[in-house]
Structure to design on (1159 residues):
């Protein structure tokens, strides 16, 4: 929590003086009832019209000065809180950028997004409230109480008790309604689940003629949600009437005992009026305090969620920032795995990869095949150092990948990820992800190899064609080809296709493989696939099963020796095609 | 435009107008009682003039009276708040159900072309916003107006002259509030816009952080983030400041009214002209002056909320105004147990009028035939499925089943003739049993198990922690793709439809399950007319007719041998799978 104060340091003048100005306004507000009492006691009682006018002028002056102070405070609050939010957002974003896959997986992407948007906004709001209200509201409540006690301590005591009582009511109702709010949120999540299911399953729902029963299911959920909301309403509806009653009965009591006090000559009529005024003021201030408590409880939860991000250190560390001079030698393996084991979760009994060893030489094309969860993608992640291997070493050009800087390691590898993701912008801006300084010619060549040139050329704006979020205006196959081109633009030494031709039909897939083979002779290519057809002509095939390499060799060798490989092939082709 | 939105919201409130009336009456009683309070307090103060000059009897009388009004106000305020809650949530429940019903009956064309996240957000968030708006609107506007009218009446009863004074000063408050609201609204819109941009950027970049890392794009990503963030700061600061102006400004006007009442009231009390006033009278007036301006203050406070509610309501009404699927023809027949003879004659269809797809397409399918649909990715292989199931309607020509045009069959009974297994396996949140029995509610346990067995799903179901009662999490997260597909097959097995629509998986799942899925498909197709979006050679070779599609059009038609002999697109497609590199 305290670290956040350090983000406010730049704005400390605003943070300190904002409340000061607010305090001035509050003090002035407290003086108003005293002045009014003076008008009545001195002015009206002694029939002094000039005095009344003078005091009226004082009231006006108090108003003007109050307004000025309030405006200054608001200005300061807006500067400090928005500045604070900006600093925290930048900080969180920078931190997320350092995370490796392990940390991203742990938080989950949706959660990281809410943390950097909603949670920071809540905190920012809390800072504004801190400056605007935290001093003012309690000060008004306590000040009104002290002023009342000063006028007449016995009558002031009534006000004191009433304040405590109101505080108690606020506390009770609020703590009781919180669980209801949680319940209401759950009901809302349920509505959202049903809506999402019936949208994604619209075809199935209709195919089975189940529209009516889905409607019933939804109606029930909607009904439950509204019932919960009404139940909360019933409870919170008590708040205003109860506090109103306590406040007014306190006034009744003040009036009753006030009668005696006036009769005894202890206080004046004007004093009674002031006391009544203070009572009203206290109630208003207390309601603000109650809201503040809610805001700060929420903010504290958000702060701890943000802190969690800021406190998380990445598990994959960069130890070296220097560049290596690399000597490529056809005798030194481009990539070598030596007894590598890895598990995503330290507690897991089963490793994602077990004692994996293989060598890939420069210019080779290597296929990796295996069922879902066999560890294919894990190999890719380890080569790129998105995770560190639990055991064993991985070398590129004979150098342990841990000794490279991230930039040097990753810049020599072109990856086409499983999910074809494009970013808002143009085709060109997306291709430049691979290489910031790529020329049009280089981009054309990459598109050509990726079998994307034809359709990009047909687009009226060519490379400048806009890409909508998530690449929604392109088909799955087109997106996949663009992501392949993006990886090729950097002319990498190593190209990794991580199951990235699944959206391509066989013909395009084959053309792509041919183009890569002829156009990029010295590139080392790793093809991860579930399709035996995509990898059968590779120089070397690694067959994975539950994290173990159960076979390494060529297609024909493996057909003879590796049962798992044979099974995979048989499930996809007929005997005579093998 | 806003008036029409308001009108429509009010129409939805109508069934609950008894709560509305009750809330109205309670509000009036409560506010009158609340407003009567200051007069009584003033009377009590008047009864205690000075030392040894206190009229106890009248004080007691007044205080008893005051206590009664407090209790009354308390009860009616509670009734009012409760009724408004009831009204709000019952109304929004109805709106929500109506929107869902609409979406449920919308043509698939609409659902296919709209982001699901957006539609869900309308059902969930927008209705919530409307609820907040109705709640705040009724509570604030309503009690505000009643309070203002009531206060003016009470003030008039004490002193018409000072009332006039108050009434003349307050429009100033309104004017200031309106001006600020307009100013801050503009800034808010801008802030919302930039906030939206920033959130979108975060969602896209953090959402794909893994790709960002692959390309070492972190620094470049942060640079743009920083720029957007700075823009947000500048604009957010202004928006916050302007909106924060409303409160002090209206409070200031409030202060002026208060000072004016204090001075003029006191002068009147002293000089007795232009009107005479007691000290108690001044007291009550001061309280009224405070109360009178408060509603203005509060209404400015909720105005953004109400604006958001209006925007949300518009988004909801936009959905409600969409054309639903046309109803079945009144003389449509209910089809049961067809033979499975399908004929397609002179069919024309396109998703968008400017891009013609299927033109003059003809096909005769005899009972038990297998029709394979092949073609490259994105060539429109699912179009035919959409037309057969009447997810979309053909623009010209006709499709008939057993000689009856499908437009003359009720949609439900038509769709019941087909069993459909799509590549995109959809299961709902519930037990495995519920999911298999989806198409036949009230199916017996034995039937479910038999269906699961013939779909080769029984074994893996028994391996689940609770067997058939295992709950499938959202999107079937705890099952593998192949297992989900087996459940979808079992779901169709249970219903035993006369015809089938199958969509083969493009990439293989794990080998062992894949073999089972293929065997299950074979089981399913026995003796049934089947339409298959095919990716596997064996399926294609065994098909009665192959439809080859490219760019949304059927370009070749015939069986394997015929098409190979033609040496066209199909032949090329076929050979590409065997050709060596």
């Amino acid at each position: 929590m305290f670290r956040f104060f350090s983000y406010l340091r730049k704005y400390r003048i605003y943070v300190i003086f904002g409340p000061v100005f607010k305090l001035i306004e509050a003090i002035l507000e407290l003086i108003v009832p005293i002045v009014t009492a003076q008008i009545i006691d001195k002015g009206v009682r002694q029939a002094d019209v000039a005095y009344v006018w003078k005091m009226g002028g004082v009231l006006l002056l108090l108003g003007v000065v109050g307004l000025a102070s309030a405006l200054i405070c608001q200005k300061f609050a807006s500067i400090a809180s928005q500045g604070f939010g900006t600093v925290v957002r930048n900080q969180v974003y920078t931190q997320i950028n350092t995370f490796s896959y392990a940390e991203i997986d742990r938080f989950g992407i949706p959660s990281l997004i809410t943390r950097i948007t909603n949670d920071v906004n809540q905190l920012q709001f809390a800072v504004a409230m801190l400056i605007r209200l935290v001093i003012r509201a309690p000060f008004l409540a306590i000040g009104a109480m002290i002023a009342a006690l000063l006028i007449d301590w016995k009558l002031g005591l009534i006000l004191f008790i009433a304040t405590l009582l109101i505080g108690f009511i606020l506390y009770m109702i609020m703590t009781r309604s919180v669980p209801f709010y949680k319940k209401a949120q759950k009901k809302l999540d349920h509505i959202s689940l049903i809506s999402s299911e019936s949208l994604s399953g619209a075809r199935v729902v209709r195919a089975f003629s189940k529209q009516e029963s889905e409607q019933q299911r939804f109606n029930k959920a909607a009904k439950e949600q509204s019932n919960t909301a009404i139940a909360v309403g019933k409870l919170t509806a008590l708040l205003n009437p109860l506090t109103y009653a306590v406040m007014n009965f306190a006034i009744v009591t003040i009036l009753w005992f006030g009668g005696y006090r006036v009769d005894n000559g202890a206080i004046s009529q004007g004093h009674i009026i002031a006391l009544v005024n203070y009572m009203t003021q206290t109630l208003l201030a207390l309601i603000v305090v109650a809201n503040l408590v809610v805001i700060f409880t929420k903010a504290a939860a958000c702060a701890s969620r943000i802190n969690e991000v800021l406190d998380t250190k990445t598990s994959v560390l960069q130890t070296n920032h220097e560049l290596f001079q690399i000597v490529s030698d056809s005798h030194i393996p481009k990539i070598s795995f030596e007894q590598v084991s890895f598990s995503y979760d330290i507690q897991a009994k089963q490793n994602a990869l077990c004692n994996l060893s293989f060598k890939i030489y420069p210019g080779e094309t290597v296929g990796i095949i295996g069922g879902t969860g066999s560890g294919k993608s894990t190999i890719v992640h380890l080569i790129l150092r998105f995770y560190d291997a639990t055991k064993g070493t991985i070398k590129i050009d004979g150098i342990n990948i841990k000794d490279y800087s991230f930039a040097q390691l990753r810049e020599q590898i072109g990856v086409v990820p499983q999910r074809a993701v494009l970013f808002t912008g143009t085709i060109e801006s997306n291709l430049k992800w691979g290489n910031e300084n790529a020329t049009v010619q280089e981009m054309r060549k990459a598109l050509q190899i990726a079998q994307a040139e034809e359709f990009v050329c047909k687009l009226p704006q060519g490379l400048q064609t806009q890409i909508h979020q998530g690449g929604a205006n392109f088909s799955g196959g087109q997106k996949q080809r663009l992501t392949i081109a993006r990886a090729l633009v950097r002319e990498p030494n190593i190209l990794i296709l991580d199951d990235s031709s699944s959206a391509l039909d066989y013909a395009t897939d084959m053309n792509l493989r041919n183009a890569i083979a002829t156009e990029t002779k010295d590139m080392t290519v790793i093809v991860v696939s579930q399709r035996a057809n995509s990898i059968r002509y590779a120089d070397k095939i690694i067959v994975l099963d539950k994290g173990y390499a159960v076979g390494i060799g060529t297609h024909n060798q493996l057909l003879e020796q590796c049962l798992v490989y044979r099974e995979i092939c048989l499930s996809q082709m007929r005997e005579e095609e093998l | 435009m806003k008036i029409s939105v308001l009108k429509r919201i009010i129409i939805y409130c109508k069934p609950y107008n008894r709560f509305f009336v009750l809330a109205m009456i309670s509000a009036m009683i409560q506010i009158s009682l609340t407003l009567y309070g200051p007069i009584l307090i003033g009377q009590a103060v008047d009864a205690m003039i000075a030392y040894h000059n206190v009229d106890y009897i009248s004080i007691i009388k007044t205080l008893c009276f005051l206590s009664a009004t407090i209790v009354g106000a308390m009860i009616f305020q509670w009734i009012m708040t409760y009724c408004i809650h009831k009204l709000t949530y019952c109304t929004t429940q109805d709106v929500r159900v109506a929107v869902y019903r609409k979406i449920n009956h919308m043509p698939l064309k609409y659902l296919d072309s709209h982001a699901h996240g957006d539609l869900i957000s309308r059902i969930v968030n927008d209705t919530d916003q409307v609820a907040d708006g109705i709640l705040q609107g009724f509570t604030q506007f309503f009690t505000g107006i009643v309070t203002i009218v009531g206060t003016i009446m009470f003030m008039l009863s004490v002193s018409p002259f000072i009332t006039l004074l108050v009434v003349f000063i307050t429009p100033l408050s309104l004017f200031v509030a309106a001006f600020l609201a307009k100013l801050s609204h503009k800034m808010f819109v801008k802030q919302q816009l930039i906030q939206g941009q920033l959130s979108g950027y975060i969602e896209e970049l953090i959402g794909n952080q893994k790709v960002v890392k692959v390309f070492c794009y972190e620094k470049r990503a942060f640079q743009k983030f920083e720029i957007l963030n700075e823009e947000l700061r500048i604009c957010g600061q202004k928006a916050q400041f302007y909106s924060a102006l409303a409160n002090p400004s209206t409070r200031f006007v409030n202060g002026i009214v208060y000072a004016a009442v204090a001075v003029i009231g006191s002068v009147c009390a002293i000089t007795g002209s232009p009107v005479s006033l007691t000290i108690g009278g001044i007291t009550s007036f001061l309280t009224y002056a405070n109360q009178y301006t408060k509603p203005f203050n509060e209404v400015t406070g909720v105005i953004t909320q109400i604006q958001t509610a209006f925007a949300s309501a518009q988004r909801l009404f936009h959905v409600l105004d969409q054309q639903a699927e046309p109803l079945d023809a009144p003389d449509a027949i209910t089809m049961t147990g067809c033979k499975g003879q399908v004929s397609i004659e002179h069919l024309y269809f396109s998703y968008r009028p400017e891009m013609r797809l299927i033109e003059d397409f003809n096909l005769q399918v005899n009972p038990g035939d297998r029709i394979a649909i092949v073609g490259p990715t994105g060539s429109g292989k699912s179009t035919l499925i959409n037309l057969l199931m009447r997810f979309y309607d053909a623009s010209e020509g006709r499709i008939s089943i057993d000689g009856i045009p499908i437009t003359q069959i009720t949609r439900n009974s038509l769709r019941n003739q087909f069993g459909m297994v799509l590549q995109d396996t959809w299961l709902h949140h519930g037990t495995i049993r519920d999911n298999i029995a989806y198409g036949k509610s009230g199916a017996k346990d034995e039937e479910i198990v038999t269906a699961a067995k013939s779909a080769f799903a029984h074994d893996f179901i028994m391996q689940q922690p609770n067997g058939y009662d295992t709950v499938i999490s959202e999107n079937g997260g705890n099952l593998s793709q192949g297992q989900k597909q087996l459940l979808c097959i079992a779901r169709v097995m249970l219903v035993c439809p006369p015809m089938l629509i199958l969509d083969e998986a493009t990439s293989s799942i794990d080998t062992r399950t894949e073999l089972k899925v293929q065997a299950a498909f074979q089981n399913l197709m026995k003796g049934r007319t089947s339409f298959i979006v095919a990716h596997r050679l064996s399926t294609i070779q065994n098909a009665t007719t192959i439809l080859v599609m490219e760019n949304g059009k059927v370009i070749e038609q015939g069986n394997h041998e015929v098409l190979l002999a033609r040496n066209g697109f199909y032949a090329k497609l076929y050979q590409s799978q065997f050709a060596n590199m």
